[in-house]
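pinned: reference chain
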Amino acid sequence: MRPEELIEAARSLAPRLRERAPEAEQLRRIPEATIKDMKELQLFKALQPARYDGLELPPGAFYEAAMAIAGACGSTGWVYGVVGVHPWQLALFPDRAQKEVWGDDPSTLVASSYAPTGSVERVEGGYRIRGTWNFSSGCLHCDWAFLGGIAELDGVPTHYTFLVPASDYRIQDVWHVVGLAATGSNNVVVEEAFVPDHRAQPTMACIGGPGTEVNKAAIYRLPYAAVFANAITAGVIGIGLGAVEEYRQWMRQRVRVAYGDERAAEDPYSQLRLAEAAGEVDGVRLQLHRNMDEMLALAERGEEIPTELRARARRDQVRGTAASIRATDRVFENCGGKALFLHQPIQRLWRDAHAARVHAINDPERGLLIYGGTEVGLDPPPGSMI
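pinned: its C-alpha cells
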C-alpha cells in the first residue's frame, strides 16, 4: 500500500464515522463496526513492521489518516492516533515480544497508559507490577497494553514501558466525560503481574531499540517523543480541519435573521473568520509534515537527528494543538445558538478539541521552554519529551 492509498482509505471511511459519531458518544467507546472497518482497511497497520503483515509507511501518511478520521469523529481520530502508533513502539521491542503479540494474529491491537502511577518491583528475570493506570484510550478493543512505570537503569530511575497481556489486567469503566466521550479511555487495573525482561523497555533511553535488529526500516530510527507526540497532535489538527469544514458548509447554508436575512456567505466578518481559522490549522499541519519529513530523511541516510530539530518538532507539536483549538473556537463561536444542540457535529468537535488539550503532551509551556533553551545553548531539562 502506498502512502496516498492509506490516506484515501481513511478519507473514504469519514462519512460513516460522521454518521456513527452520536452512537459512539452514547456507547462511550468506538463502535465495533468502526474498529472492524479500520482493520479491514489496514489503517492500524500503517506503522507496523512488514515482517508482521504491516505497511511500514512514513509517519506522515499515518498522521494524515489520523487527521482525516478526526475531522469526521474526534474520538475515533484520537483512538486511531493513540492505538495506531503502538505498532511502531512495539517494533522497537525484542522480536520475542513482537511475536507474542502478532505471531498468531497480526491485527492484534495494543492500548496504553504511560503515566507511572503503578508500583514496579525488580525480580529475577523481569519485574512485578501492580496498580491502576488511567486514561487508556481504546483499551476495550485491545488484547495487550503498554503501561508506564519507573525502574532503575544503570542505577538511575528511568521511565519504562511494560507490555502486559489483557489476561493480566481488568478494565475499570470510569469514562463519563464532556469531550472525547467515545474514546473509552478507562482505567487499567493490575492486581499483580510478572513482566519478563523482554517485555520491559526504557521508553526513551535512545533512538531505536532492540527491535531494530530485525526491523530495518528508517522509521524505526526516529525519536520516540516526536513520533508519539505528533500522533496526538495530528488528531487535534484533524478536529480543527473538521471544524473549519463544518463552518464552511454552515456559511453556505445559513441565513442570519437577526441581521436582516443576510446570507452568512456574504458576511465579510464570517469570511474573515473562515480565512483565519483555515490558515492557522493549515499552517501547523504543514509544520508537522516538515519536521517529520526532515527527521525521516536523516534516518534514511543513517545520520543523527540533532537536538535542535527534535526541539523544533516539540515546539511545533504543542503550537499545533494550540492553533487547532483556536481555529475551532473561532468558527464555533460564530455559528449561532443552533450550534449548541447535541446533534450538531461542530459542537462535538469543539468539545473534543478542548478535551484533547488536557493531555500532558499538549502542555505548551513545556514544549516551548525546551525549544527556547536549546536555541540559546542550554541542555533540555531532565525528562524532556524530545
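why pinned: The chain is about 50% helix and 15% strand. Residues 3-107 form a domain with the Butyryl-Coa Dehydrogenase, subunit A; domain 1 fold (CATH 1.10.540.10).
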